[in-house]
């Protein structure tokens, strides 16, 4: 495939002014008529042809100002349309007819059918699978859409913008017209037609405009859309409060679809969602699912301003909308829930998903400069590191200047297809500062290391702090210059008080933020009042790896004293990670207690401290994932040894904390009434973590099974089932629970996904045999992305012990599925293949087997461009 390069950007030769689409839906095919008003761009050659994008298209006719074009004037291929001899100066109308087969569209890009419903997914390059077009984000025009469809199969007809005329046609058909007054790029086009159920509501904007809200679901599921509607209204109100952004159309529609490649899509006025992020009730969804729905609803809604009103000039600017919108949804969740716990969740995600990407073969900068397949760039780096960069700007500027910068961004760029440079510039302008060394964060790939050195001179009562930053060259081969970063610190006294931060040398510290810009900077604090404990990188103020040789006693003191609650968690979590990595990375028999007694005591003290938020305590008990420990080890990783070491540590915590865990389990009745709020969810999280430890120490499944049976909600039911499946995979009790779960939920696709996913994630090499068997289950299919992810994705991405089996059978089986999947849906196969990204860090036997598997894949002639891109980059 061809590589697309940032510096090859140029404007289109023709300027599109508007488009009128007529979409005629039939069983078995769809006819599209696209009437585009356009003219040649001034300055582009008078004889330059019009070159339009297409993908697997069939042209049915082509007209210029109403007359058919002679065959000699154009070339129509499935992959593009080139038209010659077009008018030199005046505007004209092209009408393009195409025919497609939505029923055969298994890639789920463009127009496809899901469960009988016609729906579209156009980002990034799906519109070209519907009609020939300038399918690029810098072509912004108003769209008018007329949908015609059979009335029985599709009583509901939706598109972007505001609703217009509707009416009946012959042969049991009808039509609806939609008008979107806002200029938009093709990737934000959407259309849905089907027999859908509707939940309605209204929202009055701050300026008094009434908006009609609706969520459309499959028949019989609308009662599960109430929480999503509530989250939508809270998102709308929050964006007015926090960013002064109001909604701008008369209607806002959401449709829940069961076959969807990603989480959701922010099409203007018509968001299309994976139904996983809409449909919920306590009996079928966990607290994590509730939080996920809230986040995704908010995220897509926030895109209306950051993405739609201001979009991207080209796909290299993807983080302009994604990083910024993730930052906004994270802030929303922090305001709606509990800030520290939310921040812990975001940092965990960053470290478990983005850090490995940034430190491995798939490394790329937040603003890449080239790609082969853009769908492979919807990554943790673009989204999550992109959000961290916005967060750093907010931290560096402070809340007032940050808000002023955002206001200026909206004012200056409303209606634009903008760039990262334009985004950074608004903050330079409002704050009157030069952010060029900060802007390097967008271009330099990799996780910088922040090295911290401290010295205390007792005689002078002088404390010296040196911060140094460094960045290693990685796979992306980008620069390694020092970058401006905010380092939030505190000097903590023995009673947990923050001391003043007035350095006599090193420059001013505003509030608690050091603006580190050099490779190394030293700060001297005089008369500090005794040796302080250094609390550094508070709230994870920069996405770096911390290298801080701090004594265990200082760290354990901070774990108790630090006024910054995030750092109390981080310090314990880092200590656990380091200890486990040291024990699992060595070759000698790991110590009986790899954590050490004092750390275990500190963990238990926090977990048992009723003055602290239960959700926070649950996070302390959630020891770093095996993949995080593997990343910390860095080379010659044996995933089985990592798992065994982590299990040994969990057992030590369980044994030492029997009383704490017994008390916590007893305090949470299994049949308590359910409320999805964050405080109630936190209590369940703590109780279920405690149940896991209690089961580890008593060593039999009865208690988990009893809880499974009595549970009044899916959070507790799934947590108990996970304990059974993970700890006692072959026990008769576990089979009983799995069968009961299946019998209860076999017709609920989203819950059945959980049943597949749990079994695929059960640690141990034997899981492969069970997963193989499950892949022949009548309810298993590779065609539905959620189902494919639940079994295959969960196996390869969440189960290092089974996927990385020493004999290589895990890889062999996975690759066979990958090839099957690739013929159906390349975006999903490519994403799943990233499970190989850490292959070079494995011990030699597994490394060789993984490399063989990847090289065998690379040799196949018919891989999709998506999968080939990932395989080639992983091997490079
Ligand atoms: N902006 C949306 C991206 C998306 C997407 C990309 C590629 C293929 C399928 C897709 N579905 C949605 C999602 C978001 O970030 O809001
Ligand atoms: Zn997004």
From TrEMBL:
Domain Peptidase M1 membrane alanine aminopeptidase: 227-438
Keyword Hydrolase: yes
Gene: pepN
Domain (Aminopeptidase N-like N-terminal): residue spans on this chain: 91-188
PANTHER family with a match to the protein in the record: PUROMYCIN-SENSITIVE AMINOPEPTIDASE
Enzyme Commission designation: 3.4.11.2
Molecular functions (GO terms): alanyl aminopeptidase activity
Domain Peptidase M1 alanyl aminopeptidase C-terminal: 553-876
UniProt keyword annotation of Signal present: no
Catalytic reactions of this protein: Release of an N-terminal amino acid, Xaa-|-Yaa- from a peptide, amide or arylamide. Xaa is preferably Ala, but may be most amino acids including Pro (slow action). When a terminal hydrophobic residue is followed by a prolyl residue, the two may be released as an intact Xaa-Pro dipeptide
Record's protein name: Aminopeptidase N
A Pfam family this chain is assigned to: Peptidase_M1
Cofactor: Zn(2+)
Ranges for domain Peptidase M1 alanyl aminopeptidase Ig-like fold: 446-548
InterPro entries reported in the protein's UniProt record: Aminopeptidase_N-like_N, Aminopeptidase_N-like_N_sf, PepN_Ig-like_sf, Peptidase_M1, Peptidase_M1_dom, Peptidase_M1_pepN, Peptidase_M1_pepN_C, Peptidase_M1_pepN_C_sf
